[in-house]
Amino acid sequence: MAIKAEFGEDGWSIFDEWSRRAENYDAKVNRTRWRSFKTGGGITIASLYGMARDNGWRDDGTYRVPDLEEVAARARKRAEQETKARTAKAAGADRASKKAMAIWSMASPATADNPYLQRKGVPPTETLREIDMDKVVAVYGHVPKVRESEPLEGNLTVVPIKVAGKLSSVQLIDPAGRKHFQAGSAIGGGYWAAQALPDGDGTGRQFQIGEGVATVQSARHAVPGALGVSAMSNGNIPSVARQMRECYPGADIVVLADLDKKTGEPDNHAVEAARAIGGRLAVPQFSDGPAPDRKDFNDLARVHGAEAVRRAIEAAHSPGEGEGTRSGSNGTAGWPQPLPLFSKIELEPYPLDALPPGLREAVEEVTNYMRAPLPLVASCSLSALSLTCQHLIDVRRDAQLCGPVSLFFMTVAESGERKTRADSFFMEPLREWQRKRADEMKPEIDAFRAAHAAWTSECEGSALRSRRRQRRESHPTT
Predict the structure, then answer these.
(1) What is the chain's Cα-based Rg?
(2) pLDDT digit string, tens, across residues 388-433
(3) Nearest 10 degrees: Cα torsion 127, 132, 137, 139
(4) Which of 85, 317, 358, 461 meets the CB 3.0–4.6 Å disulfide criterion with 323?
(5) What tens digit of pLDDT does each residue of 187-246 get?
């Protein structure tokens, strides 16, 4: 992914050559994997260098710094590739949306005897449908699969996923619970609503936000009048929760946490979502202790019934108030959740336009070439600029305060985000000037050191003669 982010399709040969060293190398699979990698994501070439350093790699000095023309050419090519990737992604999302609408229009309302809903023990709802496999194949051109290996079977439940209020994709679920998402569809921030979402600001209404369809339906069924929204994945819960809070500022929003299978604690994404929107966190409480196959509110409903679900939702709490995870959900005495040491500050775009044109262009060029964070690069440029002119310029901050334009920066960044490399782009000319001046002044420095050594020797000889004189005066000879 790092190679594709940096070189685009030109990086295929590097990736393939590296992959061939694996014992399970398969040329066809490797090409499919390469096509699935998306540029413009969180993995960049800086990520690769960071991982390499963490595992012992050190630069041996053979790396050649490209000249400005080469840097500009790479930046232009990368921009073209990113534009092409965005265009392809948008076209793929459009095709997926059209297929989703076709699937939805061909499907019929889900009934009480739907195999998947019966298996989960939840009732049907107006926003769920079902469809025969033959109709899906007619739209897709193939049998939908899970992870490209397990084909779905039987009558399929259709879950519509909306992004910004519009149908973007569908999730297909077979009677065994295997799930398929459309390839190429835009699902980030997408959600499924168990019912039509109301008008107004949500005052007096309870919104329940959970991971899956069965979780949301179990909670909604246990609390009459509640509105259910599924984020379709735990990682998507914070995004969906923020959307619901923006649309319904007056609503009581309850985030339905899944339990982590390893720790038995509420999933971090649910905790983060509840804290970020000022909502409440509901945690499933299993009275007979933890079990590997029990992690969500649907499991709680099937084991202890709807009343246990209702009680857990009534006991929902704000994780920001220090209550933390309730004891009993995993058989342990729950410690209060510690308050955060740092308040969460919403990120704002770096004010690049505030920089002078020449400095702004330099910062943009280095950022595009290195793929390092823009604020980090800008800080390096400003620190180098202040060092260059601090002996030439003073600034008067008010009538009494006047001083040099020195700036002091502290940059906090992850390993691999290229702090040292970014700094070197701007500081290397100053270090080169420093080395040049040291060479020019070497005769003067050598003369000073010789004079200083002679002066030191004279001082030491004088001190020795003084000590000898003092001893003679203290112990006169007879």
Answers:
(1) 33
(2) 999 898 888 777 788 888 899 888 887 777 888 888 889 998 999 9
(3) -40
(4) 317
(5) 778 899 999 999 999 999 999 999 999 999 999 999 999 999 999 988 899 999 999 999
The owner of tokens 């604020």 is: 375
pTM here is 0.57
Give the bridge partners for 210, in sequence order: 230
Query: Distance between the two ends of the chain, CA-based, in angstroms?
Result: 94
Alpha helices in 107-175 (DSSP H): 115-120, 133-140
CA nearest to 237, candidates 218, 215, 220, 217: 215
Place of tokens 């959740």: 337
Query: For residue 280, which of 250, 319, 234 has the smallest C-alpha distance?
Result: 319
Structure tokens at 90: 């948008």
Beginning with the edge strand found earlier in the chain, give each strand of the sheet holding 129-131 in spatial order. Answer: 108-109, 129-131, 156-163, 166-173, 179-181
Tokens of 209: 């936000």
Q: Please, what is the Cα angle at 274 between 273 and 280, to 5 degrees?
A: 155
Do the beta carbons of residue 168 and residue 187 sit within 8 Å?
Answer: yes
